[in-house]
Amino acid sequence: MKYVLFTGIALAGLVIDQLTKLYIDGSFRLHESVTVFENFFHITYVRNPGAAFGMLADSPWRVPFFLVVALVASAGILWYLHRSRERDFWLHGALALIFSGAVGNLIDRVRLGEVIDFLDVHWYRYHWPAFNVADSAITVGVGILIVHMWLEEKAEKNARKDSPEA
């Protein structure tokens, strides 16, 4: 069952990511922006050759580096999924979100040499760097993973504390 859940979430995330990027690429000019919520949120078409906050954007080895990182991360996620317990639904969902985000951005890097970003959150003139659905999936997946690991650790500590051997 864990593979079905993982595959369903990963495919849904990947499809949504790629469809939104195709829509933005086909419907917007580069740097075109549409206001969704004034002084807070715009849809702005940008391309990011680097990583978060444009890191490594000017490096000649950025594409091979990001390809290797994405492939290693994806393999690690699949290994961790395989070793996980069948009942860890939150873990499987978190891993699927992270996987779909990594693969979604990997597709952009292979296809374009850079990533399409378009979600532009800001407070008046203070902007967070633009991001996309894949970035959001990774962020939400990591957040769920952190909470899941914290709750697991807490449950294990309580089980050891309540055990007659303690």
Describe this structure in words.
The protein has 166 residues and is α+β, with helices and mostly antiparallel strands. The protein has one domain. It is built from four helices and four strands. Helix 1 packs parallel to helix 3, helix 2 packs antiparallel against helix 3 and helix 3 runs antiparallel to helix 4.
| Shape field | globular
User: DSSP helix count?
Assistant: 4
Total E-strand runs: 4
- Gap from first CA to last CA: 35 Å
Major sheet: order of its strands? 1-2-3-4
Q: SS-based structural class?
A: alpha+beta
Number of separate domains: 1
- Are there runs of 5+ residues with pLDDT below 50, and where? none
Cα-based radius of gyration, to the nearest Å = 19 Å
Q: Mean pLDDT, as a whole number?
A: 90
Helix content: 55-70%
Largest sheet, strands/sense/barrel? 4 strands, antiparallel
SSE arrangement, N to C: HEEHHEEH
Strand content: 5-15%
Q: What's a concise summary of this model?
A:
The chain has 166 residues and is an alpha+beta fold. The protein contains 4 helices and 4 strands; from the N terminus they run H-E-E-H-H-E-E-H. It has a 4-stranded antiparallel beta sheet.
Topology:
Elements: H1 2-27, E1 33-37, E2 41-48, H2 62-83, H3 89-112, E3 115-123, E4 126-127, H4 133-162
Antiparallel strand pairs: 1-2, 2-3, 3-4
Helix pairs in contact: 1-3, 2-3, 3-4
Keywords:
4 helices; 166 residues; alpha+beta; 14% strand
